[in-house]
Amino acid sequence: MAWLVTGGAGYIGSHIVRAFETSGTDVVVIDDLSSGHRDFVTPDVPFYDGSILDGGLLRRIAAEHDLAGVVHVAGYKYAGVSVKRPLHTYEQNVTGTASVLSAMADAGVGNIVFSSSAAVYGTPDTDLVTEQTPKSPESPYGESKLIGEWLLRDQSVAVGLAHTSLRYFNVVGSGAEDLYDSSPHNLFPLVFDALLDGRTPRINGTDYPTPDGTCVRDYIHVSDLADAHLVAAHRLEAGEALEPVYNLGSGDGVSVGQIMTAIARVTGIDFEPEVGPRRAGDPARIVASGELATRDLDWRMRHTLDDMVASAWAARQAADPRERE
């Protein structure tokens, strides 16, 4: 039996697909390539170029493949931009998830792993976020992910859907040099683009109540994340009980200043980042506990910060091998 990965040509989705391939688990991909890359998916993996809003296509995929379940990664993932495009965000993330669940129900597919987000927490008033931390999303993106979790919960009550949702913060690094983060909004690509263009990277605020004055966040390696999705899928397929949600967190976090230092050290490009004012709404520290995921999903931080930077830098250079002056 195979697992369908929606959004499997994107940065995170493609790493999940590679994890399934490496484990010997059959996998199928659907992606509309709005932000994904066709060449992120190896030729051996069945690929469908289309939208999860196309229920007919989803049902055809289910008819053509013996699906054990779905890893649902596809979605509009830009929290900041979602404020300006709320209807688009809800269509892609809420209507899209409902479309996936409807096709699954029609085809009798009973397992789903949902790629959720720590954006469901908004700005928590605790130093360590747990699954019980109150949910207070501050963007249409965060709201849409929380609604997606509710849809899974309600479908479980209705038809016995086996499900779990994985919430995470900042995903970085690369598990293969041909897979890279091409997001125009994420920290690592922004810093790498600046360095490759000969510009100086920028830090927004150095006066936060943290050890070095810069924001502290959870940064996790994309391969560790992919492995957790694989374990969750296998456990659901085996009929084992899982929690409805898990945080994939580091437990301690890394500051933006530490990341800049690591990037300079690993790339060999000596730079002193520019310092700008704080961005409105940026909390000083958001870090999540991964204890439940460690217990149930073999979740571990298997990569150091330098590993994250080195792998991401190698993939970025392979994608754009411009020579530095």
Automatic annotation (TrEMBL):
Keywords: Carbohydrate metabolism, Isomerase, NAD. It catalyses: UDP-alpha-D-glucose = UDP-alpha-D-galactose. One of its GO terms (biological process) is galactose catabolic process via UDP-galactose, Leloir pathway. Pathway: Carbohydrate metabolism; galactose metabolism. Residues 3-249 form the NAD-dependent epimerase/dehydratase domain. Pfam families: Epimerase (PF01370). PANTHER family: UDP-ARABINOSE 4-EPIMERASE 1, UDP-GLUCOSE 4-EPIMERASE. Belongs to the NAD(P)-dependent epimerase/dehydratase family. This is UDP-glucose 4-epimerase. It comes from Orlajensenia flava. The lineage of its organism: Bacteria, Bacillati, Actinomycetota, Actinomycetes, Micrococcales.
